[in-house]
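We emphasize that the prediction below concerns an isolated chain of 72 residues; any contacts that depend on oligomerization or on bound cofactors are therefore not represented. The input was used exactly as deposited, without trimming of termini.
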Amino acid sequence: MTKQLTHPMMKFQRKVSLLVESKVLKPSDSIWKLALLYDNEWSYWKKELLDFGFVMQDPVSEVLLVEAWDEE
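Result of the prediction step, given as a token string:
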């Protein structure tokens, strides 16, 4: 039996989902607002988001719509 590793972006997506569910963020908020919440970790997450084709003006809801974080 092999253990499948969870992609870091899946964990990030879950955290963002919880922020939306708890009303800290609105789905229509821009991704850049996450920088205020992730502080020291933001440079890493920003790079990851940019690598996946996001721009900081995209709404948070776009991150929540991703079904698979496959790197090609």
